Automatic annotation (TrEMBL):
Protein name, per record: Histidine phosphatase family protein
Annotated organism of origin: Ureibacillus aquaedulcis
Transmembrane segments: none
InterPro entries in the record: His_Pase_superF_clade-1, His_PPase_superfam
Length: 186
């Protein structure tokens, strides 16, 4: 990421779509969103990643609109809470729909979800702020594509009906490297 982008991010107007931290191995079984024992949860590394993500955003002076949005899965909620604090997270059931893109859906259902995702990503954040979403990766060719653990896609919304632009895809390491040039920014 270049210094100009960091300057722009510090002025707000972007969406940070971030995949949750590293989760335990396995599968969600008999999924119950009220019971974390039925889900894959954050590993110790995933917890560290989430805390570090929040520290980086604060250090870089990235203005955030609170509450941030998280998928109802325990691993996404915990990632969000560790990054920005428990009281700064709002669970949004829509991100379950987006997670369903990885499943076997009819073409109509897939298109309905993708259309709604498009409209969400077109919404401009509050002036001077950035929106943050903590959710999941996408299957190849759907949504924003494959995203690794704690990777962030920076999106510039163009407004309702005008689309959005993917500006960059940054790993946690990429974000941390911004700190190296932080003190030289205007």
């Amino acid at each position: 990421m270049n210094r100009l982008l960091l300057h722009d991010l510090r002025n707000g107007g972007y969406i940070f779509y971030t995949r949750h931290g590293e989760a335990t191995i396995g599968r969600d079984s008999n999924l119950d969103f009220r019971n974390c024992f039925t889900q894959r949860n954050l590993s110790e590394k995933g917890r560290w990643q989430a805390i570090y993500y929040g520290e980086i955003l604060r250090y870089l002076g990235i203005p955030i609109k609170y509450p941030i949005s998280a998928s109802p899965f325990c691993r996404t909620i915990e990632t969000a809470q560790l990054a920005v604090g428990t009281g700064n997270v709002q669970v949004d059931p829509f991100w379950i729909e987006v997670n369903r893109l990885s499943g076997n859906l009819s073409s109509e259902e897939r298109q309905r979800i993708l259309n709604r995702l498009q409209s969400v990503l077109e919404l401009k954040p509050e002036a001077g702020k950035n929106n943050i979403v903590i959710a999941h990766s996408f299957p190849e060719g759907a949504g924003l594509g494959r995203i690794r653990n704690m990777e962030t896609i920076i999106i510039k919304p163009r407004g309702v009906g005008n689309g959005y632009e993917v500006i960059d895809q940054l790993s946690l390491s990429d974000l941390s490297k911004l700190g190296e040039s932080f003190n030289t920014l205007p």
